[in-house]
Design brief:
heterodimer; A: alpha+beta; 10 helices; 14 strands; B: 10% strand
Chain lengths: 397, 225
Amino acid sequence: MSTSTITVTGLGGANQQAVAAVVNNGAAVVSVADVGTKESFLDAWTRRLADHARLLRAKGEALPHPVVLVYVPTWAQVGKDLGWDRRPMLGSRLADPLSGTFGVGALNAGAFTKPQSVLDVRDVEQTIAQAGLGSCLTIALMSTTELWIWMQGLDAEVQPFQKPLDDALALLDLQTLEDKLSEFYEQVARQTRTWWKDAKKRITVSPPEAIVQNDLWLYLLGAYAERAKVKQETGIGNGRADLTLTPDPSRALDSSAVFELKVTRDCHTPKPGTKNLTKISLEENIAWIASGVQQTAAYRDHEKLDGAFLCVYDFCAGNRSELEKAVQDSSLQLNVIGHRYWITASNEEHRKHRFPLSQPAASAAKTKTRRKSRGTTPPVSAMPPTISPAQPPQNKP
Amino acid sequence: MSQDSLLNPAGPDEASSSLESAGMWKAWVVLCIYESQRMGLTPVSTAQLHVILYLANTLADLFGVTRVRGRVLKRGLYPFFPDVQPEVDRLAFAGVLVIEHVEFGAKGHLAAHYALGERGGQIGQAILAHSMEAQRTAQLLRELVCACFGRFLYERADIGAIDANYGDALVLDGEVVDFSEWRSDNKNLGLARLLIEKLRALRPDAQRDGVRLYCDYLDKALDPA
């Protein structure tokens, strides 16, 4: 929309040109979360550092030293205690020099920064260790083409997210989003710690959907903040979509999408102070999956979005084919892109799933013991048959 | 000063000089400085404080908050509430706020810069715990101080000429800017809603983005470059 096409009347002393400028460039202001939150910080600084790198590339300049921003909710107090400099306007202007800046903050602009520049990766690591910031969300622009994000901080065992910065941004289509969901599954979801309350009993944290959703939200924000609005719990029609992705107006060819997340599990998480496990049947899980397909299709059609995703994070034992079939069958009916992601509860389960052997290790060990006790070696023909991919392995954590 | 006096319900605009209105103003001032301090944005100068209080009153409907005052005298470069300043001073003398430093301007004009005093933190928390309305007010002020300080308000507070209500040419200098008599009179809110509507494709959040977009408008109008 050109500035000349916007005319506002009856708005008192409003400056027409400034109103038009906001409409034309308002995407940077529209928020994904309340001010001061981790999500808002991640969205704003990923976008800002990516823009800053783009500006340097356009000017043919390099970034001599890293730029690091660390999210600390109590940043003002932490910054004061560290004796760092208060820079309330840091990041508010794209052209401001940022090389060597190490700051703690919580807002879209402004931070307390270390008085001395950070020179390299070793310097950054030392600063983080000395300031006790190892568990805080950290965003680092390492060069004009490379942005790194540590969602849980440098000390966490979760892999950092590397974001390549490129002037020729590839088209963000539904296939790219599908690949990104797979990447999230491989890099974040296939872990056995933060989503389980008691992995051995297959009891999830509570509420699992909210926690999975928040992790995926942060992941998508880190990936696409500079080109799209990734929002959580957007009100659509009579419901609220789990996650929506809306490209910025400047990225008109990119695809928009809604993501509905469902968790299937064997039992409800016991309420605090209780131990009773309420089982969830296979039929209930299948019905839950079907409801997710209907929801995401409805949101897509209501908002005229390009795509609808159903992401089923399956915490049930056994990697059951019935659930996979339910996802695929129901998704097909409403043209939804449906995927089930099985969440393993132990390293053993992960290995069995990813590196299946023709003879399960447990039964092999049992056979070995039996063999030992008998003191004989069975013929090869006595080994159990190969497990077909469709047959779920007997996972008993 | 008791917390009860801070938390008395607001009276109508006409009763602005009443104890109830004074109490509400104090509550808003404490919440404003409390949120500013929490966000690392203190000290807040007198001009900045009055601009935030004015904008909060004009945009209160976005957060479902009952405004304290729907009028301001049009005089000077930015909205200023003469009767509120004594309440701010009382809070400072009572130790709820502290004056971190004072700027001596031209013709004997003083500008104090406020932060939260020792008692201020406790009182701020007590106000927040009191009601959902107080929490919504704090949320409004939090969005507002962050949206303003991240942009224009650090450098200048003279929003008078470009503020949709205050800068309306139909209201002459020395007259009262009334943005509460009729809904259409509140042009700040009208502009915020217009911006939300224009950016509907991005699914803006009516509350927080309404505040942010209006502050972005002020920023762009003050610094067109």
